[in-house]
Design a protein that fits this description.
- The chain is an alpha+beta fold.
- The chain is built from 3 helices and 4 strands; from the N terminus they run αααββββ.
- The chain has a 4-stranded antiparallel β-sheet with strand order 1-2-3-4, covered by helices on one side.
- A hairpin with a 2-residue loop joins β1 and β2.
- α1 packs antiparallel against α2.
- The longest helix has 16 residues.
- The radius of gyration is 16 Å and the shape is globular.
């Protein structure tokens, strides 16, 4: 059932990861990540975010995600677990010292998503590529009907 719904499940999980990355307190980062990740993925993503704060941290949230769009995906089932090779684009704004920049970064990763404690969680997150070529470019607004 989840395999057929991965195109909604994957961006929903990633959106919470990005929400965690927008947090400024370590306990809020961890708790938010723990709501959608587990095991190796939780450890990896938590250490990535806390490591980025090592230069002094953030006094206020510095990002707003406007859209996460799946670009390419390949999904395989392994029992109850989904193995997802995905690429996605994140469009948002990032603040730096009183000004905002539009970002349109593209990411590729191998994800494992499995049921943990009655909810779908990312259990493995292997980041393969980050492409920032579209940073600052204008993107057409999605159609609303």
């Amino acid at each position: 059932e989840a395999r057929g719904d991965f195109w909604r499940l994957t961006p929903a999980l990633l959106l919470v990861v990005y929400d965690a990355f927008g947090q400024t307190q370590e306990d809020a980062i961890y708790d938010t990540l723990a709501s959608v990740t587990h095991g190796d993925a939780l450890e990896y993503l938590y250490l990535e975010r806390v490591g980025a704060m090592a230069g002094g941290g953030l006094e206020e949230a510095d990002q707003t995600i406007h859209e996460i769009k799946l670009l390419d995906t390949d999904v395989a089932s392994d029992g109850a677990k989904l193995e997802i090779d995905a690429s996605w684009q994140v469009i948002g704004t990032v603040g730096h010292a009183e000004h905002l920049q539009v970002r349109g970064n593209t990411y590729s990763a191998d994800l494992s998503v499995a049921p943990v404690d009655g909810a779908w969680r990312i259990t493995n997150f292997d980041l393969l590529e980050v492409n920032r070529d579209a940073t600052g470019e204008m993107f057409p607004a999605p159609q609303t009907n």
